[in-house]
Amino acid sequence: MNEATRVRLPIRLWAAVAALLLIAPTLMVVPLSFTSKRSFSLQLEGWSLQWYEKFFTDPQWLGALGTSLVIGVIVGVSATLLGTLAAYGLKSLRARVSGPLQVMMMLPILIPGIVAAIAIFGMYLRWNLSGSSLGLILAHITLALPFVLIPVSTAMRGLDDTLTRAASVLGARPMARFLQVELPILLPGIATGFIFAFVTSLDEVVVAYFLQSPTLRTLPVQMYSSVTRETDPSIAAASTLLLVLSTLIILIPRLVQVVNERRAAKQGDVE
Amino acid sequence: MRQSRIFSGVAVIPALAVILIFFLLPIAVIVYRSFTEPEPGLGQYVAALSDPTTLRVLGRTMLTAVVAVGACILLGYPYAYLMTLVGPTARTLLMALVLVPFWTSLMARTFAWISLLQRDGPVSAILAFFGAQDVTLLGTATGVVLAILQILLPYMILTLFTALNSIDRRQLAAAQSLGANRYRAFWQVYLPQSLPGIFASSSLVFILALGFYITPQLIGSPKEAMISQVIGLRVEKIVDFAGAGALSGILLLATLGLFAIVILGLSPLRKGISQMLSGGER
User: Fold this and answer.
1) CB A205 to CB B25 under 8 A?
2) B62 CB within 8 Å of a chain A CB
3) Which residue has the higher pLDDT, B70 or B224?
4) Which of A34, A120, B49, B225 could disulfide-pair with B229, CB 3.0 to 4.6 Å?
5) Partner-chain contact A174 B4, CB within 8 Å
6) Count of Cβ atoms closer than 10 Å to residue B96 Cβ
7) Which SS3 state, helix, strand or coil, does residue B212 take?
């Protein structure tokens, strides 16, 4: 055992370096958002909430946040709906058909963002969709679909066919079978898919940048222009808010899991 | 039953239609335009591949991706390996340290890197402490690689961990009981089995690294552009969709070609490599 610990110490130190590289730049944005100086420097001379105040009073920042949240929710809901249907369909198709279809629907992950962005931008110029929120929503749905397909397909693999058969033997019609037997089992996978899709849209910069118009500017695009054009530390406030949001997104499912396990344990005690 | 099977298959259509019309069709059109505008033929590709600047950009993009992959393996493998060794609580913590940056907005992290790497910023201060005075990484290729590394490391660790976790560690004990010391057991028993995992995750990271746009745009210098930036610039500044399409075609060929190799060639390649390492004994 002693010997084992000795081997692991260098690995631990090396992993600590990796952890530092991963986490330090992420946490950096927090102190930056509370500085009183109008620059991105860490020479802290005082603390202030002014950048949060600016973020929440400036119509440009607030508007961008609103746009991002609305588009993110619409994309999240639509992609979850389409992706769940598609995962359902893929499962019932023969492997020879579903294999290529699956690869095709995964392409948005692999194809570089800039290629997708200029291609969609060029197409939308012809279709008069550039600068419209409908166009951006449709583009984001395609980018988000793979992230719904993966968790929902995984959840479907865990679906026991005998349950479905039992339901139909007992007289459940396909719709009732889906809603009452399959859906509850798939729900965690579908919820994960929704979160993935929402975050994909909320985080996407390149396509949103090329499709932007004065009235259609998402939060990442606003952050991008704020870095390139002005030195506006409101971006630090925006970054910190997004960091808190993403941390919550990771923590909440874990907390729900812990609460559920506790509850299950308690019920086990009573019975 | 057969009828319901066809009905279920139909459920694929809406998602497929959206991807075909709003994703694959635009990409097909821009690649088509690269072969037909201003006149039909390979003119755009000949122009792109005979331009020394474009070739330098392509080479630089490849080099950046290779360095990023190498650094990802160096930092990611021990981390993923450690994750397979520790108990559940420590593993959850290590996982969280990977997942929080993974889910944090790309723009937020890019902004953080800008402030970390800027002139007289924290990284300069640390380098000065170690004796390297007046080093500013913002606007350099090193800065770009650092930021790309931070973005790709979670992909590397998550895919590697899945691969490493499926290797039976009892084989190490078996090797040691047969007289191999710990290092030999690792090199000859564990590492060869983890090669397919390294190969798969490196390919993923390499493919993703080729397409970086925001990071080099904001952290790098325009003089050291990567291929994505040139594609973006072509469209933004001179509205040259055909030229941008040709460069996109080259980039797509590299990414999708590599992806095809991974899918089709993984198992023969894996066998070949593991045989090479075990000295052809197996």
Assistant:
1) no
2) no
3) B70
4) B225
5) yes
6) 14
7) coil
pLDDT in tens, B10-62: 889 999 999 999 999 999 999 999 999 888 989 889 988 999 999 999 999 99
CB of A9 within 8 Å of any CB in chain B?
A: no
Q: Between chains, do A11 and B78 touch, taking CB under 8 Å as contact?
A: yes
Interaxial angle between packed helices B191-210 and B241-277, expressed in degrees from 0 to 180 and rounded to the nearest 10: 170
Is the ipTM here above 0.90? Answer: no
Q: DSSP for B145-203?
A: HHHHHHHHHHHHHHHHHHHHHTS-THHHHHHHHTT--HHHHIIIIIHHHHHHHHHHHHH
Domains recognised in chain A with CATH numbers: 50-270 (1.10.3720.10)
CA quadruple B116, B120, B123, B126: dihedral sign: negative
Closest-CA residue to B105 (of A146, A208, A150, A139): A208
Chain A positions touching B65 (Cβ under 8 A) are none
Residue A184, preceding bond cis, omega within 30 degrees?
no
pLDDT higher than 80, residue B72 = yes
The region that residue A37 occupies, defined by phi over 0 for left and psi between -120 and 50 for alpha, beta otherwise, is beta
- H helix and E strand count, chain B: 15, 0
CB contact residues (below 8 A), chain A span 76-115, against chain B: 82-83, 85-86, 88-93, 97, 101, 104-105, 107-108, 110-115
3-class DSSP assignment, residue A216: strand
Chain A 43-72, residues with CB within 8 Å of chain B CB atoms: none
Residues in chain B with CB shorter than 8 Å from the CB of A114 are 211, 213, 228-229, 231-232, 248
Span A155-189, pLDDT tens digits: 888 777 788 788 888 888 878 887 888 888 888 88
Name the 3-class secondary structure at A264.
helix
CB neighbours (10 Å) of residue B82? 22
A203: contact with B, CB 8 A cutoff: yes
Facing residue for A18 by CB, picked from B5, B75, B108: B75
CA distance B56 to chain A (A): 19
Count of pairs with CB atoms under 8 A, one residue in A, one in B: 259
DSSP one-letter code for A47: B
- Give backbone dihedrals phi and psi of A80, rounded to 5 degrees, phi first: -65, -45
Nearest to B75 among A17, A26, A243 (CB): A17
Q: Which option is the CATH number for B52-277: 1.25.40.10, 1.10.3720.10, 3.40.50.620, 3.90.870.30?
A: 1.10.3720.10
Give chain B's length: 282
